[in-house]
Amino acid sequence: xxxxxxxxxxxxxxxxxxxxxxxxxxxxxxxxxxxxxxxxxxxxxxxxxxxxxxxxxxxxxxxxxxxxxxxxxxxxxxxxxxxxxxxxxxxxxxxxxxxxxxxxxxxxxxxxxxxxxxxxxxxxxxxxxxxxxxxxxxxxxxxxxxxxxxxxxxxxxxxxxxxxxxxxxxxxxxxxxxxxxxxxxxxxxxxxxxxxxxxxxxxxxxxxxxxxxxxxxxxxxxxxxxxxxxxxxxxxxxxxxxxxxxxxxxxxxxxxxxxxxxx
Length: 263
Description:
Blueprint: H1 2-21, H2 25-31, E1 37-42, E2 50-51, E3 57-58, H3 60-72, E4 76-81, H4 84-91, E5 98-102, E6 111-127, H5 135-138, E7 144-148, H6 152-160, E8 165-169, H7 172-181, E9 186-190, H8 191-198, E10 204-206, E11 212-221, H9 225-240, H10 243-250
Parallel strand pairs: 1-4, 1-5, 7-8, 7-9
Antiparallel strand pairs: 2-3, 5-11, 6-9, 6-10, 6-11
Helix pairs in contact: 2-9, 3-10
């Protein structure tokens, strides 16, 4: 009898814990108003997402989206974009419910952000014979910098550059191509992507240091307060549990990119 009683108590407690972990109904409604989780995935940032050999997508943002859908108990519907600017533009037409983009003031007008889950560096790529040697050398009159339109580093440099000019391209990969074909002075981008590009071209080098810490977060359109509150708790748990670190490492990225716990 005692064993039966103990087993019943364990079952009851497990059921209670499971119920406590279930997302609030209002959060589910806000994050999946169509009955499925529409998640925007940006393959323009190789740290967070990449296309696979079968034409699908993989990476930390995809893993997080699938885990969130599992917890919400709704199907996943991935919306794939090739640039962060296209993701944020799509928020205006209601194409997605959650996204994975960097925290930027210009985006906060229509999007609510969680705390960051990954922090990556924005830096410059230049020619191997370039007279530009340091980050500070780039912001001078006459210097032209290639950027992906609407990227986090485009928005940051738009706010902070005093002298250099930005030349915008539709996507980050096209910005790198444009840097070469249009003979620009530098290209701005995510450090990992620039390093990857430099490995294929012996005539370019990635500068030491960085001009920006890019704080990648989950996002949802403004006005979904219950949904955003749930997302904040979700992303903090995913960092603390090691989920984000493991997802980065499976994707060939450094687990050291995981952002610290929010205060």
